């Protein structure tokens, strides 16, 4: 019988978050509406969670040589992370549904034996009301944990609470 071993939280690629250029998805000259996304990651006590790796994926705009549609950011000592990217548009979902513009995030860090998957939607986006994934979160207070708020021109804030009151919604993948 095989012996179970612990999962790796980020495997051999932790060094990739040491390079801040990975958090700039526009670094290769991507054209389009730029935006910044930032926030803090906190633990169950509300304390900042440092050295967390946040991976951002987006289906729109599509990945090209000038736009990878994927990035990584680490949290600093105060639990802050930051991305520069292009504003996503709506994308098709299952059964010909349309998903509201969003980012997919994957959270990796000390003590998390498996990554945590969540999504970031934009406050005031018309498609939020009919997005099939966002609509699947029935409790309005829980659904609100998936909505980024405007934080200035072309800037959005999305805080991630790992557990406790106001815990961010995480999805099974």
Task: Explain what this protein looks like in three dimensions.
This protein has 173 residues and is mostly beta strands. It contains two helices and eleven strands. The radius of gyration is 16 Å and the shape is globular. The two termini are 27 Å apart. The model has no long low-confidence stretch (mean pLDDT 91).
Put simply, the count of helices is 2
Q: How big is the Rg?
A: 16 Å
Strand content: 25-35%
Q: What is the name of the CATH class?
A: Mainly Beta
Domain unit count: 1
**CATH H-level superfamily:** Aromatic compound dioxygenase
Reading the helices and strands in chain order gives: EEEEEEEEHHEEE
- Distance from first to last alpha carbon: 27 Å
Largest sheet: 9 strands, mixed
Q: Shape, please?
A: globular
Q: Kindly name the structural category.
A: mainly beta
The CATH architecture comes to: Sandwich
What is the oligomeric state here?
single chain
Query: What fold name stands as the CATH topology?
Result: Protocatechuate 3,4-Dioxygenase, subunit A
What's the total number of strands? 11
Approximate helicity band: under 10%
Q: What's the overall average pLDDT, rounded?
A: 91
Which residues form runs of ≥5 with pLDDT under 50?
A: none
